[in-house]
Structure formats: structure tokens, C-alpha cells
Write a structure and sequence with these properties.
single chain, mainly alpha, 2 domains, 3-stranded antiparallel β-sheet, two-stranded antiparallel ribbon, globular
Length: about 450
């Protein structure tokens, strides 16, 4: 068997496994309650990541085109289930079947050569026959699954968005965008009483914002697509109270990045952030807000605010510090070094970090006044600031080891040790917050 035939056979096996997995999970939705289903999906997600680098499961994961679809698949299913946790199970079934059945039909019909037309929106081949099969299958699934299927505009818009999620994919990211995107559509429609005008305006606003961020080289193309989904999630699914803090973080970060590039008179320094950089600064905000959607626990609002305060503090310090100081104190070398290095601190950078943290917390005090009292403002602000300091310490002493650790798994395109440090550093904010709350209770 030649290499091409072997690759096609392996791809067919993987597609079959994904299809059967989705159908099996669909069957379980009739047998298990929501908590049990959640644990099943979590277990499947952990297995997918644990087995990704194992040679024993190479057939399941590795592809000729370096697709990450086998990792996107469980994340997409888990994310969709979390978003739709409190909605009727039919909505999750619709998202799952769109991913399982419609995507499979797109793959089957996309391989028809005679008369087919191929195009490449994000460096991943798509075909006219494949898209048509996906659209027809999705329309049928939504019609028979959704309670709102009798509303023609609702049905057509849901199908159109699903097509967009499938077409604009990269390295198998449609396994993530299809279930997450459809789930976002369902929850936004539920929260806004099927107001299609609101959704259309939201999609246009998010799309225009993402396009401008890419146009002005502030985000890479794939990162701008992620920003598009995040805007719909935070504004549509959660509301403006949740969206304003993270939007403020991104806007101020972009502003200070532009100012720093212009001040240095180096336009080339203004380069677009990639997907990993965007995720590193927002992953905990996404997870804590998603957990709040499931549980409604108020402490998760505080965790959310603390991590946004932390990443804002870190970014303001990184961008503003070098504007005022050409040199900074290196925590690792314990001497002055050129500003901008990892693990470097300066007076201006530290003050900027403090200001950035309290900027987010002060705004959140107004947005979440029922949850955040004046005493918590101080605790949250200091938690965000201390987390940015923890980020500097990690940058000074752990970056080299993290680089070696990443290298042991092979190249992960665009992912750096600094991204992991940002993830770990921002997670320190909720820890400092809990310690501050305990201390505040003792004082009171």
C-alpha cells in the first residue's frame, strides 16, 4: 500500500471513530442525566489529551496535514455541553449531530471529484459539494431537533452560521467551531428571546471588530477568528457586565502596544498577536465564566474579575514600563538589564501594573455591585497586582525549563513558554484573592 492510500485509510478510520463516538454520545443523552453526561465528556476530553503524544494511539491522532482535530473535537463537545447545560437537551443534540453527521457528510461528498469546486479560506481545502452536503444535513438535523425549528428565519440563520463555522477552519478547528458556534447561537437566542435582529447586529459588530484587528496587524488571522467567537460569547451569552472588563483589557492593551511601537519609532514592532497569546490572556476568564453559567456561584464572578485584573496589570506593566525606563531590574540576574526582558521589573512598570489592576476592579465594582463590596475592591486590586508580580517571577526562573518541556513534545506552532507563564501567572490571582478574603474576614 503506497503512502497516499495509507494516509487515506488512516483518515477514514479516524473519521469513523469520530462519527461512532458522536453517535454513542448522542445515545447517552437519552440514558444519562446532565451531571453524569458532563463527567463522561470530561473523561473523554482527558483521554484525548493524555493519549495525544502516545505512540499507542498514533493512528487516532496523527494526520498527514498535522491536524489538531482530535483535540479540538472533545473541547468543542465539552464547551457546547457546558454552554447548553441549563437548556433543553435537544439543543446539545443538535450541536453534537451537526458536528458528527453533517461534518462527516461534508467529508464524504467533498471527495467527489467530477464537477466539484475547491477553495481554501484558511489554508484548509473545502469544496462546493462538501459545503452543500453539510448545509443540507444541518438543515434537516436542526428542523427535527430544535424546538424553534418552526421559525424559518431562526432555522436558516442557524444553518448559515453553522456553514460559516465549518468553512472557516484551520487544522481541524471546525471540530471546535461547529459545536461551540452553534451552542453560542442557541444560548444567545435563548437569553435574548430569539431576537434575530440583536444576533445579526452582534455578529456584524464582532465580525467588523475582528476584521479591523487583523487589518491593522494587531491580531493574526486565526486569532481574529477566535476574537470573533469570544465577542459573541461574552456579549451575547453572558451580557455586557461580563464583556466590558475583558473588552477593556483588549482595547487598552492594543492602545499601549500602538503607543509603545510609535514611541520607539519601530512600526515593525507592531506585530499581530497569535491565537496562543490571545488564549493565554483569556483562558481563565472563559473557564470561570463558563463555570458560572453552570453553577451561578458568585465566587466565580470574583475569580473572573481577578484574572482580568491580573492580565491587564501584566500587559500594562510590559507595555508602559519600557516607555519610561530603558533598563529594568532582572529578578534572575539580580542586576540591571535592558527593559522588556522576561522577569524584569521597574518602578514605572510596577505602578502601571497596580493602575491596570485597579482600573479593571473599579470598573467591575460598578458592573457587579451586588457581588463586589468596597472591601473586596482592595483585595481584588491587590490580587491582580500580585499575580502580575508572580508572572514576573515565573518569567525569571521558569521560562527556560518550560521551553525545554515544550521541546520534549515537539513543535507546537506559535506556542511559547511565555504563553504558559501568562496562564500560570494569571491563575495566581484567584489564589491571592482567596487569601485576601480570609484575611479580610479575620480583620472584620
Amino acid at each position: 500500500m503506497n503512502q497516499t492510500n495509507r494516509a487515506n485509510r488512516n483518515r477514514a478510520i479516524r473519521k469513523s471513530i469520530h462519527f461512532l463516538t458522536g453517535i454513542a454520545l448522542f445515545g447517552l443523552t437519552f440514558l444519562l442525566d446532565h451531571p453524569a453526561l458532563l463527567w463522561v465528556i470530561i473523561a473523554g476530553t482527558l483521554f484525548a489529551f493524555a493519549s495525544y503524544w502516545s505512540l499507542s494511539f498514533r493512528l487516532l491522532h496523527k494526520t498527514r496535514d498535522h491536524s489538531l482535530g482530535t483535540l479540538f473535537y472533545p473541547i468543542g463537545v465539552l464547551g457546547a455541553f457546558i454552554l447548553l447545560y441549563h437548556m433543553p437537551v435537544e439543543y446539545f443534540r443538535a450541536s453534537l449531530l451537526t458536528l458528527t453527521v453533517s461534518d462527516t457528510m461534508a467529508n464524504v461528498f467533498g471527495r467527489i471529484r467530477a464537477g466539484n469546486i475547491y477553495f481554501n479560506p484558511l489554508k484548509e481545502d473545502k469544496s462546493l459539494f462538501g459545503v452543500a452536503a453539510f448545509a443540507a444535513t444541518t438543515l434537516i438535523i436542526l428542523y427535527f431537533q430544535l424546538p424553534d425549528a418552526t421559525i424559518l428565519a431562526f432555522l436558516l440563520l442557524a444553518t448559515l452560521l453553522a456553514i460559516i463555522f465549518e468553512v472557516f477552519s484551520w487544522r481541524g478547528s471546525d471540530n471546535l467551531s461547529i459545536p461551540l458556534g452553534s451552542a453560542l447561537f442557541f444560548i444567545v437566542m435563548d437569553r435574548h428571546e430569539s431576537d434575530l435582529v440583536f444576533l445579526i447586529l452582534l455578529v456584524l459588530f464582532a465580525g467588523l471588530g475582528a476584521a479591523l484587528l487583523h487589518r491593522f496587524r494587531l491580531l493574526e488571522k486565526k486569532a481574529s477568528v477566535l476574537a470573533f467567537f469570544m465577542a459573541i460569547y461574552f456579549i451575547g451569552a453572558l451580557g455586557f457586565s461580563w464583556a466590558i472588563p475583558i473588552i477593556s483589557f483588549f482595547v487598552t492593551s492594543v492602545l499601549f502596544t500602538i503607543i509603545r511601537a510609535k514611541k520607539a519609532d519601530r512600526p515593525s514592532a507592531l506585530h499581530g498577536r497569535n491565537t496562543w497569546q490571545v488564549l493565554a490572556n483569556s483562558i481563565w476568564a472563559i473557564l470561570f465564566s463558563a463555570a458560572w453559567l453552570i453553577t451561578g456561584m458568585e465566587i466565580l464572578i470574583l475569580f473572573y474579575v481577578s484574572v482580568i485584573a491580573a492580565v491587564t496589570a501584566d500587559t500594562w506593566a510590559s507595555e508602559i514600563g519600557p516607555l519610561f525606563h530603558r533598563r529594568c531590574f532582572s529578578l534572575y540576574h539580580r542586576e540591571m538589564k535592558p527593559s522588556g526582558i522576561n522577569g524584569g521589573v521597574s518602578l514605572a512598570g510596577s505602578l502601571a501594573a497596580l493602575a491596570g489592576s485597579f482600573f479593571i476592579v473599579g470598573m467591575s465594582y460598578w458592573l457587579f455591585d451586588a457581588v463586589i463590596d468596597p472591601g473586596l475592591v482592595i483585595v481584588l486590586g491587590l490580587a491582580g497586582f500580585l499575580a502580575s508580580m508572580a508572572d514576573s517571577v515565573l518569567g525569571a526562573f521558569a521560562e527556560e525549563k518550560l521551553e525545554q518541556w515544550l521541546g520534549s513534545f515537539g513543535s507546537v506552532n506559535g506556542l511559547t513558554a511565555n504563553d504558559l507563564i501568562n496562564v500560570l501567572g494569571s491563575l495566581a490571582a484567584p489564589i491571592f484573592l482567596l487569601l485576601g478574603i480570609i484575611l479580610l474576614e479575620i480583620i472584620r
